[in-house]
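Appendix B, Record 12. Input sequence as logged:
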Amino acid sequence: MDRSWMHDSGVRRIAPGLILVPLLSLTCALTTSCRSDTAAGTAPSAASARQVRVEAAERGSMPRVVTVSGTLAAEDQVALGMKVSGRLQDIAVDLGSSVRRGQELARVVPKDFRLRVQQAEAALQQARSRLGLAPDAAGDQVDPGQAPLVRQARALLEEAALARERAKNLFAEKLISQAELDAAEAAFQVADGRYQDSQEEIANRQALLVQRRTELEIARQQLEDTVLRAPFDGAIRERQVSPGQFLAAGQPVLTVVRMHPLRLRLAIPERDAAGVRQGQDVRLTIVGDDAIHTGRVARLSPAIQESSRTLMVEAEVPNPTGALRPGSFASADIVTAVDEPVVFVPHSAIVTFAGLEKVIVVIDGKTVEKRVHTGRRDAARVEILEGIEPGEMVVVEPGNLVGGESVTATG
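Logged structural output:
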């Protein structure tokens, strides 16, 4: 018998069997997998619900504020200069020095001004002497009728009047000529004129005395003006000159700023301007300082600026310690309403994606996404202006949670 045929036939018979075994194994594997998937889909559905922590959106109160930025400015700032010209003798302060009102800041050489005071005092004494006032007499007033010049002129006038009367009597008795009578009349007229002149001279001397007194006061004031004093409490912002320099009257020497209080200038948008009132509280922070400073609205512009559509407002900010500096940029909140009812949720409940804000709430064990509009924030909470109501349960720290998922809520 031919064995080769049997061998070939055997191969052909066995080969299909070899092929069927893997197919049956694959079918069995698929069947087992299907049963496993079916069991997994029915049995653990409750176990696949995620546990999430929720908090109720609560109603509370928060101050209504208008948030703007502005610049701190000094209440007063002035460039100080000497009222008199002269050579600068010394400066008692420098940049950053704190000063008190009336404190001496600088001085020019006073010698020339002392000499002028002495000159004015001598001129005053001369004027007093011409009026007959003693050097130690009190006051500058004198009775014009008792002045020596007037008394002398009055005596001459009285003598001329008597001589005229005698001449008239003698002329009536034909004892003197007409010429002698005319001479007596003329002498009387001259004496009367001198008397009038004496009264006018006393008035002039009285006026001259007042002038000399004024000149003395001016000289003394100029001597006092050789010292530059602080006009108010503040600090030195700038020093412009050095000792030994000749100063013209009014030339800037030092710049002084008032540090307490400060002015905060704010430009309020027109849409928020209606709620801003004088006396409202202002909370502000400055760059580089996390501390919250307080002030109050002190002044409001009467008109809206047409170019920027803003209302200029000035707040008064106390600065007794000098911690705030004029010129600093400040972010400020103007409290326009103290206790306004609002809806709050925790910060961590807000999900932001593509510029949109939403929260995830739990309703009947399912998550629901709700878009919200947020407002003000404090340390832990966010104001919800629109989107959810008080009492709704929001997911805290939702992570990648999306709407439609089954969850188990825990407080």
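The radius of gyration is 53 Å.
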